[in-house]
Amino acid sequence: MSRSLDFLTEALRRLPGIGPKSAQRMAFHLLQHDREGAAMLSRALYQAVDTVHHCAMCNTFSDTEVCELCADESRERALLCVVETPADQMMIEQTLTYKGLYFVLMGRLSPLDGIGPRDLHLDKLVGRASDGVVEEVVLATNFTNEGEATAHYISEMLKARGLKVSRLARGVPVGGELEYVDAGTIARAMLDRRSA
Amino acid sequence: MSRSLDFLTEALRRLPGIGPKSAQRMAFHLLQHDREGAAMLSRALYQAVDTVHHCAMCNTFSDTEVCELCADESRERALLCVVETPADQMMIEQTLTYKGLYFVLMGRLSPLDGIGPRDLHLDKLVGRASDGVVEEVVLATNFTNEGEATAHYISEMLKARGLKVSRLARGVPVGGELEYVDAGTIARAMLDRRSA
Ligand SMILES: [Zn+2]
Ligand SMILES: [Zn+2]
Description:
The structure is a homodimer. Chain A is an alpha/beta fold. Chain A is built from 8 helices and 6 strands; from the N terminus they run H-H-H-E-E-H-E-H-E-H-E-H-E-H.
């Protein structure tokens, strides 16, 4: 039909979760109804590949050597919160309860996917946490098996270097009805119960 | 965080069916794991917007003035099959039962979406079907309300110009078990029954 259209359909399949049917539908839509959007997406991709790097301090995506948050003088530099992704970081920022800095792993330990400590650049985290200013590292990886294993590994590594390491509290979610919370969460909430 | 990343996330939302969460996940994935794919998609989009036009004869997407299929001398030029989309055309091609040419509407009449005869460029179809070579126009729009209405409108228009117009047969799908076929299909199959 059209070689350029085939190439576009093929390229759209590089997007996660997009199969051949979806890619075709997207290509048709862009060419028939939104060429302006297609041109804009082309520019955005080019620009992002060209300019987005990893922040030298926190490892998150940044257009500058050090990201805005790390450069913000009003943040507490003695606190370092470790998260798996920029999305997790944004969630914590939205709570407005944390005023320290971050380190973004950009992943988690996942032996099944072949992601080990070296792939996660944990040496960068160790260097960052050992700057002499950081006093406490708060581990905020997910409470999944992989997130827990990642937290455990990092915890051992940093404690061996004399750093104070903490973990987000586990328990029943705010608004959570016990009837609908899984047993593991309730068990953990029971073990971690606090005086009321 | 990163202006380039925000721009990319925004641009990805121009893809049909992609919400804010999916766009973010796609942007992260491309920048973290597949910058080569991102650069390839950027080029594919640019190239497609730049080179994909509509075939002067059949209206489908084409890199050339007249598409390969329309230029193929081995196709029967007296038969013209009208379909809604390039995907529909490909489905018919896969059956290997049709050797004529096509006209691709690139849509359907849809008053609710504000798509009338003028938006579908039906004048282009009339001109194409009236070239003196086409003898029969086979309407292969979908058997949906909108597809049926589109077929009806085109049929009236072309018959008024003395052209022979036919429609794909309706009936029980091959391999269809009556128990699982909807009543409307069975009713139509009964009305259109043929001697066995
Ligand atoms: Zn940073
Ligand atoms: Zn053509």
